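Objective 1.3, modelling of assemblies. Example input:
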Amino acid sequence: MRTLRILIAIAMFMPIFACSAQTEKKDVKTGTSDKVEAYYFHFTARCMTCKTVEAQAKQNIETLYPELVKQGKISFQSVNLDEESSKALAEKLKVYGQTLLVVKGDTQIILTNEGFMYAVREPEKFKAIMKEKIDPLL
Amino acid sequence: MEFLTKLLENSTMPWLSAMVLGFMTAISPCPLATNITAIGFISKDLENRNRVFINGLMYTLGRAITYTAIAFIIYLGVDQFKFSGIFQRYGEKILGPLLIIIGLFMLDIIKIKFPGLSGLTSRMQKKTRWGYFDAVLLGLVFALAFCPYSGVLYFGMLVPMTVASASGLYLPIIFAIATGIPVIIFAWILAYTVSGIGGFYNKVKSFEIWFRRIIAVLFIGVGIYYIIRVWI
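Predicted structure (tokens):
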């Protein structure tokens, strides 16, 4: 009876483990160089907020790390997923939808949620979050 | 909006977060076009305000079905990013043509049966029998049409919260109710005021037929808007 109870308990918690593993899929291995690359992936049809997120992210990188941008050690790129040319990159980085992504070597940091929460109304906060997340990569 | 963002940040209760996300989705300019068509569709039964209210509830039920089903499929283990990408890619593209087809149906253009308005009136009587199914269907379809902003709110914030544990599967229902409430309120106000004007002229019935035609044109207009937005 006791083993049965334990088995039931394990069975009940299994999906929780399975799913939390899935949502924490943020740090995926990609295997590129030492360069920090920021990407904004989007489709052709875009909203006001989406455009703001992209513009803010680009501006933040340029103002936070002006030297590194000049040296080519950090870059920002906007990628349209509806265009054929983006396919290889999207597949490599495992991106399927609208995403603000920072990549360095094996590390991937997704900043989409933060962008959509703060880029429009609290751009300074968004900038601080970007700095906090990108600094350890440098 | 700022108030909602603050509320979301400080919320420790998942149900409150789900509700706030729902309101943010409902009032953001992004899904406004579908909300306006939904308001029109729900308030089309001008004569009976209770019906307008129930239509609104059924529309919300449709949305709840879609949101829960998607979250449940992801909970079962489908790749969340891949799955949400499909909706982001095709949702809005299908919506435009679909709205135009619904509009043409409402105008009776697809099934032309003149002389007289017998086709339209008999259909209206039939409606009461299989009644609210169309409102459920509309909610179901409109919830599928994620625009970029609502896509992030749903897939980026609500779904991770929902699939974190089995007990979170009620959250999409709260989210759906929050997206539906503004639509219900506006539909009710619209039906109340317009039927008031109609009642003044004592011609509610013929007024209602014209009102439905306006709604149909609205569907076609919004459909064209989406096609231009997404395809051109």
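Residues 6-32 of chain A have pLDDT under 50 and may be disordered.
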